[in-house]
Amino acid sequence: MKITVVGTGYVGLVSGACFAEVGINVVCVDVDKKKIEGLKNGVMPIYEPGLEEIVKRNYASGRLQFSTDLGEAIQGSEVAFIAVGTPPGEDGSADLKYVLAVADEIGAKMSDYIVVATKSTVPVTTGEKVRTSIKAALEERNSDLTFAVASNPEFLKEGAAVEDFMKPDRIVIGVDDERAEEIMKRLYKPFQLNGDRIIFMDIPSAEMTKYTANAMLATKISFMNDIANLCELVGANANMVRKGIGSDPRIGTKFIYPGVGYGGSCFPKDVKAIIKTGKQYGYDLKVLQAVEDVNDAQKHVLVKKIKNHFGDDLAGLTFAMWGLSFKPNTDDLREAPAIVIIDELIAAGATVKGYDPIAMKEAQHIYIGDKITYAKDAYDACVDADALLLVTEWSEFRIPSWDALGKLLNNKVVFDGRNIYDKNYLEELGFVHYGIGV
Ligand code: UDX
């Protein structure tokens, strides 16, 4: 079986490499020549645990190929996945120009029946738009070739993307063509170790499923952040409340950790996009608007605590910041709370010394630049700093030497944006600990 994956971003590259890993012949296509050349030489455009290994192994075996030529790649491919970016437009809706350009090119260059499946997170009705683009391109060349459109949203998490893809909880496929359903079933057979994990449905439902999943998870987080803020006011402990409610399986233990707000490429963008879709159809998604508002506010909570402690004017103070990426195990800084926190600290006159195990290059080159200084390790960031800020809960920050930190820091003060430290223990050691809702 041969397939093409268009777009070598997170979703495209991980999907392509994982399909190759189970024995499928995959051509990964991208318009970015540099990226494609890099991949051929084993240079990963993103950091993702386990990815480099499977890309290199499958490229060496010939099962995984990289190309900039979409027309050539789709010859003999039974499926073409569209996994290109859908950046938010100015009004918050997903911009489909890249998706539709790929559809158009497939229509112009296909030479046999093909299933065109969108993997990018796209608004409801995109399936129809993809179909219209391909049809128009075929009509232009007077071709009577047939094709099917499918929606196959991806649920992988950054930092665990390979594992999520290889062992999916579910595979959602929206399709309205029997032949396409058979092809998709065959393609995904290797990933269903324990029974049938494919859920077939109509295309709009598959498109809605992706947004609804992300919106629900974002809702859990914002809900818990809201509750954590109230816990502080009433003198309750959000960690205890979290454990108390999480033990009810209907609520579950996951995604109820309060913190400095969610970031990344999915939640912020998808929550905005589904609100926008609602508006287009004259429906106000009130809960999700609140989810977004709470998250925007939550990114400021840590600085509010800092100002409560040190006063509004932070001139002359230096803060050690541990963690820059939006979550651990990724170098991704898209919508990272760290960016908001840094800007606010600097606006108040402070200096920031940042450290992140993986994301510093990305931070320096794209998101934060020279606004802060970058430390060579976690302890180096604390030398002469006036407080420690924990922003991303990388494992290496979990059990630091408090003894050493107490000597390096000017003040024994910790702002723990992810509640990873035990308040009582730190207080016994003479530290002041500020958490979220604790
Ligand atoms: C998410 C979805 O989990 C995934 O299924 C989808 O395909 C893409 O979006 P991702 O953005 O990679 O994945 O990260 P995720 O691990 O879900 O975390 C998102 C954000 O929520 C992070 O900023 C994280 O710190 C935050 N978070 C998560 C919390 O603040 N509290 C929690 O309890 C869980």
From TrEMBL:
EC class name: oxidoreductase
Reaction catalyzed: UDP-alpha-D-glucose + 2 NAD(+) + H2O = UDP-alpha-D-glucuronate + 2 NADH + 3 H(+)
Family of the protein in this entry: Belongs to the UDP-glucose/GDP-mannose dehydrogenase family.
UDP-glucose/GDP-mannose dehydrogenase C-terminal domain segment(s): 320-423
This protein's record includes keyword NAD: yes
Keyword line: NAD, Oxidoreductase
Cited InterPro entries: 6-PGluconate_DH-like_C_sf, NAD(P)-bd_dom_sf, UDP-Glc/GDP-Man, UDP-Glc/GDP-Man_DH_C, UDP-Glc/GDP-Man_DH_C_sf, UDP-Glc/GDP-Man_DH_dimer, UDP-Glc/GDP-Man_DH_N, UDPglc_DH_bac
EC number: 1.1.1.22
Organism: Belliella alkalica
Descriptive protein name: UDP-glucose 6-dehydrogenase
